[in-house]
Amino acid sequence: MKFIAFERSKHGTGASRRLRITGRTPGIVYGGATEPQLIEVDHNALWHALKKEAFHSSILTMEMGGAESAVLLRDVQVHPFKQQILHIDFQRVDASTKLHMKVPLHFVGDDQSPAIKTEGCIANHVINEIDVLCLPADLPEFVQVDLSGLRKGSSLHLAEIVLPKGVKAVTHGSNKNPVVVSVVVIAAADAPAADATTEAAPAKPAGKAGAKPAAKPAKK
Questions:
Q1: Which helix (H) or strand (E) holds 156?
Q2: What are the 10-residue block averages of pLDDT along the chain, 220 residues in total?
Q3: Are residues 103 and 62 in the same domain?
Q4: Do 111 and 69 share a structural domain?
Q5: CATH code where residue 141 lies
Q6: DSSP 8-state code for residue 54
Q7: How crowded is the C-beta side of 84, counted as CA atoms within 13 Å?
Q8: What residues make up the domain containing 12?
Q9: 87 shares a domain with 9
Q10: Residue 174 domain-assigned?
């Protein structure tokens, strides 16, 4: 994706506030051999770009002053209750340096899996993105995950996902092979209900209605 940036000469809280009033968002580009560079970006164009998944997970082309450079989105600061982007950070991309990025997962084939088609289950997406390490040229926009082989009682782990060439998954903590998708059984909606006509305990025989107790024999 491509976006247009402009060089920013002034910095500081006051300058940034005045810049936002004009419809621009202050930002910075850092990394590489050059010094960090202050930039500004059209707020409305940036707002719409941030709604696209690729803007967060792929290498971007930044055009500024007639020159183009490859960058990655690294941080976005948004107003707590206004629809306003306060600041944005980009990192320069070096073609020979590996990147550590979060990449979204796209799940396909779940409607073809035996677990969903015939075994009364659903696929629970435990993880929706993964950390990867790769060269910029190998960075995928997303990783596709095939769920067509899922069966009841099974689960899909990170090690089972087929990654693009040159891409390595990065894990954190002690769990090196976390569950990505688990199969959950759905309680059958038409399960037989308990029989309402259960046998009642035998009732004690009752006397006739209105019957009077037998009279005691008269004393002589």
A1: strand 155-157
A2: 92 91 96 89 96 94 94 95 95 93 95 92 95 95 95 94 96 92 77 49 52 53
A3: no
A4: no
A5: 2.170.120.20
A6: H
A7: 15
A8: 2-92
A9: yes
A10: yes
111 and 78 share one domain:
no
Residues 43, 20 contacting (CB under 8 angstroms):
yes
- Provide the number of structural domains found in the chain: 2
The residue type at 67? A
Domain end point (choices 75, 92, 109): 92
**Span 38-96, pLDDT tens digits:** 999 999 999 999 999 999 999 999 999 999 999 999 999 999 999 999 999 999 999 99
Please report whether residue 197 resides in a domain. no
Cβ atoms of residues 8 and 19 within 8 Å:
yes
- Cβ atoms of 165 and 105 within 8 Å: the answer is no
Question: Using CA atoms, how far apart are residues 180 and 127, in angstroms rounded to an integer?
Answer: 5
CA distance to 7, 51, 94, 154, per residue, from 84 (Å): 20, 13, 31, 44
What is the total residue count of the chain? 220
Instruction: Say how far apart CA 65 and CA 108 lie, in whole Å.
Output: 42
For CA atoms 125, 127, 128, 132, give the dihedral sign. Answer: negative
Environment class of 52 (CB within 10 Å of its CB; exposed 0-12, middle 13-18, buried 19+):
exposed
Q: Tokens for 30?
A: 């850092």
Domain-embedded: residue 14: yes
Q: Is residue 69 part of a domain?
A: yes
Among 91, 119, 109, CA closest to 32: 91
Q: Residue 76 is part of a domain; what is its CATH number?
A: 2.40.240.10
Cβ burial, residue 134 (10 Å; 0-12/13-18/19+): buried
